[in-house]
Specification:
GO cellular component, one term: plasma membrane
Pfam families: TMC
Family: Belongs to the TMC family.
Main location: membrane
Strand order of the largest sheet: 1-2
Helix content: 55-70%
Distance between the termini: 69 Å
Number of helices: 20
Number of strands: 2
Radius of gyration: 37 Å
Subcellular location: Membrane
């Protein structure tokens, strides 16, 4: 008689199937042991591979160490610097692969034509160190600058179209940078979640959900930690690390809790509102005075440098030759310090104070940069007037040379002139590129000298003179310096703006910036760990990441304006650069369409570029953006309303549960009282019964 299997039978059969190797003997048991061993090795391999991927991220351990000492606000600067390094590496690849290398490999060599040859009058000093440091001499007629590149429509055996590639690569750099910045802003917005209010149960969320249990890098346990003062009175030895938690990441966890506590304290401050408003108005007035003064100073020194140029730079001192660059660098170094002192009057939340500081330094750098550009436009106009005179003189010289060669024997060979002896124009594009390169180099040197003198030397003096000084140098003046997040971030952003703006006139600028950022990562990491102390008011910087990107986006847009104005409006130099001989630089596109494409395609392109079609298309894009923004705003409001409803429902459920619990407690108390009364009644009955029997 057959019996149907019971649930217990199925459980036993499943257990036997899963552990058949362990329960058996011989070959089956060895196979099971091999499977278990391979599973453990696979888990270990996956963990090691994740650690390897983390270690392959450039400077990840350095940034993590900085964050453990100084919080996420300082670490956000180094993360931003690493991101800028990657962006410039790609821009360097574009410019080097599509412009510089084709000219070097397929173009005419150095010394073959006048634009690639140092003039005879300058050859005696072309390799002098002072001339090279000023980016004159040999550097001026090299691939560093616009004037070196040939204007032939095609070069080399491959018939590479260098002028077209130069223009499209320069414009493509702006387009690629725009896409990358917008994508990063969207990614940072996605990290923020649904955008709702997360102020409820802040410390509970921090305590129970902030930890990442996938961290398993053993090298982090070897780092030394500075003691961190937190509002949680917790010692490092209280927790046991049986789960493999690293001490460094544990301190990071405590530091983030401290950031949250300080934010909560800042949000509960209640000051005199009238005094606060007066001090903030006063601070903004002082900042406006500083901005106006710096703009006037830059315009004054640029006009003064034009006067020195007309008189001859060799007749002036080194400071007078480099006055513009040094004044701009010094203003960028000292004005943020002055803004930091002024900001103490306002008493903002640390993150809000950082954003105000960033905005003011942003206005300072932007005003200085555009004052510099406006002054350069005046110099460009002077160069163009000089170019007209030189062009007339060259025509006269060529005519006289031809007449002198034809005055004698008609069959005589033509006169050959060495490229170094040929007269040439001033090439205003190379002049602009030189100004940008000098500005970036002087800004870099100022930054590094400030680190070595302002931070390192100050820290050495405080450290070794503190034992024999009248007061405590570490606690009082001058003390150790704090890391200036706002100034360094704005320095990076405006340095990148100058790279975008100047790469059209100096194609090797992205390469110089890659080198600068690479050195800055190591030097500033060393300086911040050795010379700086953590900020007194630590705060998380997650809300500032998109603020950095927004400023970078504005600088990108403002950097495209001078380049686009140059391409569309100003005629190029007649004897240097890839666009020489054309009325406008963008004529190379029309020339390519007429020569390399069918007639119908160029006609379609001309129709598509008609303002009658472009303006309605732009209007349609603006309307679409407005519609999408309105839709996003309505979705966000609906999300907030839905969250409020959920919170109300949650509160109602809490009330119902509380009432149910209270009712259950009352029922329990009543039952307990009833039981007590019943027991008392039974005892009384028993006592009365026993007394009756007695």
């Amino acid at each position: 008689m057959s019996h149907s299997p019971t649930p217990a039978h199925w459980e036993a059969q499943d257990f036997v199937e899963r552990f058949e190797g362990a329960l058996g003997k011989g070959k089956g048991r060895r196979l099971y042991a091999f499977k278990v061993m391979m599973t453990k090795k696979l888990i270990k391999f996956n963990r090691d591979f994740e650690n390897f991927k983390t270690a392959c991220i450039p400077w990840e351990m350095k940034i993590k160490e900085v964050e453990s000492h100084f919080g996420s606000s300082v670490a956000s600067y180094f993360i931003f610097l690493r991101w800028m390094y990657g962006l410039n590496l790609i821009l360097f690849g574009f410019m080097f692969g599509l412009v510089v290398m084709p000219e070097v490999l397929m173009g005419l060599p150095y010394g073959s034509i006048p634009r690639k040859t140092v003039p005879r009058s300058d050859q005696a000093t072309e390799m002098d160190l002072s001339v090279l440091l000023d980016f004159g001499g040999y550097c001026q007629y090299s691939v560093l600058f616009y004037g070196y590149y040939n204007s032939d429509r095609t070069i080399g055996v491959l018939k590479f179209r260098l002028p077209l590639s130069y223009l499209l690569t320069s414009v493509g750099i702006f387009g690629y940078s725009l896409l990358v910045v917008i994508r990063m802003m969207a990614r940072n917005a996605d990290v923020g979640g649904d955008g709702g209010d997360d102020a409820d149960f802040t410390f509970s969320w921090k305590m129970f959900t902030s930890w990442d249990y996938l961290i398993g890098n053993p090298e982090t346990a070897d780092n030394k930690f500075a003691s961190i003062t937190t509002s949680f009175k917790v010692r490092a030895g209280v927790w046991t690390f049986n789960t493999g938690i690293d001490r460094k990441d544990y301190f990071l966890f405590l530091l983030r809790i401290k950031e949250a506590i300080l934010e909560e304290q800042e949000s509960r401050k209640d000051d005199n509102i009238h005094l606060t408003r007066f001090l903030r108005v006063l601070a903004n007035f002082l900042v406006l005075c500083c901005l106006a003064g710096s703009g006037y100073l830059i315009y004054f020194v640029v006009r003064r440098s034009q006067k020195f140029t007309l008189e001859g730079l060799e007749n002036h001192t080194w400071w007078e030759r480099n006055e513009v660059n040094m004044v701009m660098s010094l203003l960028g170094m000292f004005c943020p310090m002055l803004f930091d002192v002024i900001s103490t009057l306002e008493n903002y939340h640390p993150r809000v104070a950082l954003q105000w500081q960033l905005g003011r330094i942003f206005a300072l750098f932007l005003g200085n940069l555009y004052t510099f550009i406006i002054a350069l436009m005046d110099e460009i106009n002077l160069k163009r007037k000089e170019e007209t005179i030189v062009k007339f003189n060259i025509t006269t010289w060529e005519t006289s040379l031809y007449n002198s060669s034809m005055s004698g024997n008609v069959t005589a060979p033509p006169v050959t002139i060495h490229p170094a002896d040929v007269p040439r124009g001033p090439c205003w594009e190379t002049m602009v590129g030189q100004e940008f390169v000098r500005l970036i180099i002087s800004d870099t040197m100022t930054t590094y000298i400030t680190l070595l003198i302002g931070d390192f030397l100050r820290a050495v003096l405080v450290r070794f003179l503190n034992y024999c000084w009248c007061w405590d140098l570490e606690a009082g003046l001058p003390s150790y310096s704090e890391f200036d997040v706002s100034g360094n971030v704005l320095g990076l952003i405006f340095n990148q703006g100058m790279i975008w703006m100047g790469s059209f006139y100096a194609p090797c600028l992205p390469a110089l910036n890659v080198l600068r950022l690479h050195v800055s990562m190591y030097l500033q990491c060393w300086a911040v760990m050795c010379c700086n102390v953590p900020q007194e008011r630590v705060f998380k910087a997650s809300g500032s990441n998109n603020f950095y990107m927004a400023m970078l986006l504005v600088i990108l847009f403002l950097s495209t304006l001078p380049a686009i104005y140059t391409i569309v409006t100003i005629p190029p130099s007649f004897d240097c650069g890839p666009f020489s001989g054309k009325n406008r630089m963008f004529d190379v596109i029309q020339e390519t369409l007429e020569s390399d494409f069918p007639a119908w395609f160029s006609k379609v392109f001309s129709y598509a570029s008609n303002p009658g079609l472009v303006l309605p298309f732009i209007l349609l894009m603006v309307l679409a953006i407005y519609y999408l923004q309105s839709t996003s705003k309505s979705y966000k409001e609906a999300n907030v309303e839905l969250k409020k409803k959920l919170q109300m429902q949650n509160e109602e459920n809490k009330k119902k549960n509380k009432q149910a619990a209270l009712k259950a407690q009352m029922d329990l108390e009543e039952a307990r009282k009833a039981a007590t009364q019943a027991a008392e009644h039974r005892r009384n009955n028993n006592a009365s019964f026993q007394s009756q029997e007695g």
